[in-house]
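My current task is to audit a protein record that another person submitted. What it holds is a sequence and that sequence's fold in token form. Thanks in advance; the entry in question is below.
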Amino acid sequence: MEPLSEAERADALEVLADWDYDDGRDAIVRSFTFDSFPEAFAFMTQVALMAEKADHHPEWSNVYNRVDILLTTHDAGGLSGRDIDLATRIDALVE
């Protein structure tokens, strides 16, 4: 698994408009806010099942109704296509 090139990363970030690029980690990050803790937890459960199936797990945190997600591929040393795929699938859950 190779990290994305600058051009590939730029193209991906155009599509993933709600995600921010973390240059220091070569990662993408996004915060999600829900109406309640149960809604946030349900979202995390859905993401956890997707991530496990893809064998690609996010770095994340949850405080009450907010879920913060960071995606990077440690084996690739930075952002990879696996991160973009998972971010796209995560976005589909909240659209």
Observations:
- The two ends are 29 Å apart (CA to CA).
- The mean pLDDT is 97.
